[in-house]
Amino acid sequence: METPQDYLDSLDEPARGWVTHLVRYAERRSGIGAELFRSRPMVKVGRTWQDGYVLVTAAKDHGTVHALDFDLVDETRRLLPRAGSGRGSVRARYDDEAAVAVLERLVDRVLERHGVALRAVPPPTGPDGGAVAGP
């Protein structure tokens, strides 16, 4: 894979829609284009990935948002009782549409913490384009 779009194009639905939505959300809110990191799309918020990032990955039945901001990740996990987790990541099933708005808020909080001015975007939507209730 050479570009983030290659990764997105390689996914089957519903993973493609879910991951694409969150990657594009991070790009639009930050004004920073995604790049590949370990063959996955990442929005880097500093000079290096160690300065902070939002990375989105796909698995068969769930997607995962990764960040180095472990306290924010832990807070987000508590808001999503159905979500799974690993160190620095929150995963949610593709069919858990309410989780999308909570994960968008995690993206916002990571960007804000790293001094990225948030750009206005339309109200949150689910991977299928439908409206999602906010957190």
How would the blueprint of this fold be written?
Blueprint: H1 4-10, H2 15-30, E1 35-37, E2 40-44, E3 53-58, E4 62-66, H3 70-79, E5 84-86, E6 89-93, H4 97-113
Helix pairs in contact: 2-4, 3-4
Coarse morphology:
globular
Tally of contiguous helical segments: 4
What is the radius of gyration computed over CA atoms, rounded to a whole number of angstroms? 13 Å
Following the backbone from N to C, one meets helices and strands in this order, namely HHEEEEHEEH
Mean pLDDT over the residues: 88
Q: How much of the residues is beta strand, in percent?
A: 15-25%
The N- to C-terminal Cα distance equals 34 Å
Supply the helix-strand structural class.
alpha+beta
Strand adjacency order, main sheet: 1-2-3-4-6-5
Question: Could you give the count of β-strands?
Answer: 6
Biggest sheet architecture: 6 strands, antiparallel
Helix content: 25-40%
Poorly predicted regions: none
Structural notes for this entry:
The chain has 135 residues and is α+β, with helices and mostly antiparallel strands. The chain contains 4 helices and 6 strands; from the N terminus they run ααββββαββα. It has helices at 4-10, 15-30, 70-79, 97-113; strands at residues 35-37, 40-44, 53-58, 62-66, 84-86, 89-93. A 6-stranded antiparallel sheet has the order 1-2-3-4-6-5. Helix 2 runs parallel beside helix 4 (97-113) and helix 3 (70-79) runs antiparallel to helix 4 (97-113). The N and C termini lie far apart (34 Å).
